[in-house]
Amino acid sequence: MKTLTPKDLFIGFSKIGMSGFGGVLPWARRTIVEQEKWLTAEEFSAMLGICQIVPGPNIVNLGVCVGSRFAGIPGAIAAVLGLMLGPVALLLILAVLYEHYSYMPIVQGMLRGVSAVGVGLIASTGFKMLRTELKYPLMLSVIIFVILAATVFHLGLGWVVLLASPLAILLAWKKTQK
């Protein structure tokens, strides 16, 4: 396993935090898996899956998990601080600017454009993660079930997790037995 210091985690997560606007999950995957190679694609997907079912923002939960994996509690603290300090400072500056200029049509148009970019980045990350799962086609049944449960039957997150988890756990266990 790679050795990372709290300083390494702070710097890495600072880059992630300052890379996105309104959602940094795509940048987190790119940095953690593709650039720094701290985790494999499979490890990232598994860790993110856990982070999505516990309370709190997924990216903060991911920072805690990655940080604690490599450097214990100091690593978790460093990762979360790195992730949050820059964006919070920037957000405070933007809030002051928004208060003064939000009435302008160009500002409203910019915000609509940024939201479209965010949706595209999240979709891109989903497709990258899906490629990993295609290596084990049975896992697609879980993905299809979750999509149907959430979109067709409008079940809440708790129900979807409760219903999909047994199948996902069984298939993941079978996957590890190969």
Q: Helix fraction?
A: over 70%
* Unreliable stretches covering 5 or more consecutive residues: none
Instruction: Classify the secondary structure makeup into a structural class.
Output: mainly alpha
The helix/strand order is HHHHHHH
Cα shape:
globular
How far apart are the termini? Answer: 22 Å
Strand content: under 5%
Report the sheet with the most strands, covering strand number, pairing sense and barrel closure.
Answer: none
Give the mean pLDDT. 89
Count every beta strand, where a strand is a DSSP E run of 2 or more residues: 0
Number of helices: 7
The radius of gyration over CA amounts to 18 Å
Summed up:
The chain has helices at 6-19, 25-35, 41-53, 58-101, 105-133, 139-151, 157-176. It is mostly helical and 178 residues long. 20% of the residues are buried.
Description:
The chain is mostly helical and 178 residues long. The chain has a domain of 102 residues. The chain has seven helices and no strands. 20% of the residues are buried. The model has no long low-confidence stretch (mean pLDDT 89).
List keywords for this structure.
178 residues, mainly alpha, 7 helices
Give the topology.
Layout: H1 6-19, H2 25-35, H3 41-53, H4 58-101, H5 105-133, H6 139-151, H7 157-176
